Amino acid sequence: MARDLYQELGVARGATADDIRKAFRKLAKAHHPDVNPGDKKAEDRFKRASSAFEILGDPEKRRKYDAGEIDADGRESMAGFGQGPFGSGPFSQSPFGGQGGGFRSTGFDGVDLNDILGGVFGASGGRGGGFSPRGADVRARLEIDLADAITGAKKRVPFADGRVLDLTIPKGVVEGQTLRLKGQGGAGRGGSGDALIEIAFRPHSLYRREGDNLIMDLPVSIPDAVLGGKVEAVTPDGPVTLTVPKGSNSGAVLRLKGRGMPNAAGRRGDLLARVTLTLPDAADPDLEAFAETWRAERPYQPRRRG
Predict the structure, then answer these.
(1) Which of 214, 212, 140 is nearest to 173 (CA)?
(2) How many CB atoms lie within 10 A of CB 192?
(3) CATH architecture of the domain with range 138-201
(4) 12, 143, 191, 203: which has the highest count of C-beta atoms within 10 A?
(5) Cβ neighbours around 293 below 10 Å, total
(6) pTM of this prediction exceeds 0.85
């Protein structure tokens, strides 16, 4: 059965020239021999896609193919030119170069394959021409403090190859986010790879992050909880005084707007201070006597929450 060049590229017969170009770009990136060294199947797939694009990527050759004037190998249908996969007629020139089997970056008539591939491989100056992949990416993991994500910071990041690179931590960076330093990876004939740094957070003694909000526990004395009062709270921007409403229970939340984490748009979330009723550090006989009287005269059962 004759090859269908449209099926080779995975496009419909009515595909636009741009659709054909994009389909070939995708296949070339996935199956190019420099990306799959020693993989004969990938090399064969790349050759078939390239020969399909050699015809469908050229308006005149595509017209002749659609009209049945040439076959899938570019040979005139009734002339019987050639025997090889590219024949020996006017369309017999292989896009893969001549002797030696090297791959050329300009093997298509009027089309620069390196341009089609978006410069991914880079032209090789080595024997036989062809493409060269860019260098490998290098990776590292960096632990930062919560404050670094709030205000932004500059850090030095060591890599396994012994290099140390400077990294700018943007405001609002999140746990697990990967920051990229372009061109700072391994060297390659097609260009250098990138340095990829995964961000991790050290545990904070006061705050827990929930999205753009920060959560903290706010110790409150029994008198302030019963009568209401003023309590100092530590925020990422410095200490502030909060008003504890009269009759506050543990778990009540006091919200400080704009004191949380910045997001990608630069807006900050809130700081949520959860009231935690706290007894004095040392035993107080008067408080104990009052509690005994209260329990005897005014017993009550706290409601179960949650």
Answers:
(1) 212
(2) 17
(3) Sandwich (2.60)
(4) 191
(5) 10
(6) no
